[in-house]
Amino acid sequence: MKATNKLLLLILFVFSCNTEEKKNDNENLNVLFIMTDDLNCDLGSYGHPQVISPNIDELANQGILFENAHNQFPLCGPSRVSLMTGMYSDQTMHTKLDVDLRQTIPDVVTLGQRYRQRGYTSVRIGKIYHYGNPGTIGSSGQDDISTWDYTINPYGRDKEEEYKINTLRKRAYGGTLSWLAADGTDEEQTDGIGATEAIEQLEKFSKNGKNFFLAVGMYRPHTPYVAPKKYFDMYDMDEMEIPYDGSTDEYLSTIPLPAALSVRWKKDQSILNDKSNFKLAQEIKEAYYATTTFVDAQVGRILKKLKQTGLDKNTIVVFTSDHGYHLGEHGHWQKQTLFDNSTRVPLIFSGPGVEKGVRSNSPVELIDIYPTLMDLTEIETPSHVVGKSLKSIFTDSNHKVRKSALTRWRASQHGNLNFSESGIQGYSIKTERYRLTKWGESGEHGYELYDHDNDKKEMINLANDPAYKSVIDSLKTHIDARIAGARKKPEGLGRQFEEQRLRKVNMTTGDLYDINGKRIWERPADE
């Protein structure tokens, strides 16, 4: 009898040790991670007077909004890999599209993978890693199977009716400006279907009690700007302002050649710098804002379900985008520059332990999301993660985890610019007040300095202004240290390999192609 009692006590002791190591599921915080595609900071909560974004704005009211958050590489694929691994692009070896994560860093532990290791159910809906948008909607894109327990790939009317889309270049959508005021309902669009799937997942988790890392990736407002017509009706196209102050040769002469090329490489959209195309530019900008409001509505549907299930009391919500977006600023549309328009992203945290209505101007980076979520959910951060936890800022908005946010760009992405194959490297830092951009390994291709106290649009390059000599000398030392740190291989990362891009060809649904993939018939838009 005594032996039996001792055995029972031993079993109870072992069980109690295990429960201390891993908390009861109901005590752990869940994570709802909402990622948009090509969304800049033109939102009501970021002070934009025109954009209608009530659901994102309310999320900001319920948590902390970061005014000065920046991506690490202003291109979808590399930015998303950095975010999901907590490392800079020099460390992930990702600078191109259509590159699988494990091709360059096969041993890395991603954000979702880390949650899987700790007993969470990790689910992806839509675009988290890179997709050819809209080319590979409905597929898994450049996904990573180690990150997720299961995935859902929505496919909606926007993809099926691609042939109806207006575009600056025939049958080209994702890489050029394209738009459509669509027929039908929200729930028929790819992002509407994604929101519906997220609602179903939340309902399931509310019943089974499992902890989750639910990542919902929206495909909009990335081109093509497609949304139901009702969202276009919310805006007056004639009220769309188009900036022309950066469209002149005189302006281009004030910035280094790589910077000038970065805002002029998209030849099909350069026609929008001609004031004779003012109405066309207004139509395109209206479409971007309409699509932003459509995305906001889908976010609202998800957050409403989160609250209805009661999961909001136990769930951290993160909202962000992969990079910013130009809408005519500097004479450029879309991304792939080292200006604030392209590097700056919305970033909002809300949920248990996050104070409401907090705003911070501390320079932060997308790679900080990984360690912040680890900190909030009390999980050990992998040693390879070089991002910094932002949790200390949640209670003290004046606190800073770093002096600057770092973004890298490689000029060879811009096609035939007479640069070497390796390209001109550009790095940019954004402090609370200044932006310094360095082109070339030693700055041999020039510098840019912008003072946000006097020039938030970054139109006046002060790099050669004697009045700012002490500022630029200090920032040059700082950016060199930041670059050196970003190039250092993190501990515990494992293997690193050079990237090899696998180019995918887009096929529009409804068109016909020959055996070699050449389009031989186009479905008319009026069918």
Offer a quick outline of the entry.
The strands form six sheets. This protein has an eight-stranded mixed beta sheet with strand order 5-4-8-1-10-14-2-15, sandwiched between helices. The chain has a four-stranded antiparallel beta sheet with strand order 17-18-19-20, with helices on one face. It has helices spanning 2-21, 54-61, 76-85, 89-92, 101-104, 111-117, 157-160, 190-208, 229-232, 249-252, 257-262, 278-308, 340-343, 369-376, 391-395, 469-487; strands at residues 30-37, 63-66, 69-70, 121-126, 150-152, 166-167, 178-182, 212-221, 225-228, 315-321, 326-327, 333-334, 344-345, 347-350, 358-360, 364-365, 405-410, 425-430, 434-439, 447-451, 512-513, 519-521.
Structure overview:
- The strands form 6 sheets. This protein has an 8-stranded mixed sheet, with helices on both faces. Strands 17-18-19-20 form a 4-stranded antiparallel sheet, with helices on one face.
- It has 527 residues and is an alpha/beta fold.
- It has a single domain, classed as Alkaline Phosphatase, subunit A (3-Layer(aba) Sandwich).
- Helix 8 runs parallel beside helix 12.
- The chain is globular and about 65 Å long.
- Strand 18 and strand 19 (434-439) form a beta hairpin.
- The model is unreliable at 6-25 and 413-422 (pLDDT under 50).
- It has helices spanning 2-21, 54-61, 76-85, 89-92, 101-104, 111-117, 157-160, 190-208, 229-232, 249-252, 257-262, 278-308, 340-343, 369-376, 391-395, 469-487; strands at 30-37, 63-66, 69-70, 121-126, 150-152, 166-167, 178-182, 212-221, 225-228, 315-321, 326-327, 333-334, 344-345, 347-350, 358-360, 364-365, 405-410, 425-430, 434-439, 447-451, 512-513, 519-521.
- 30% of the residues lie in helices and 18% in strands.
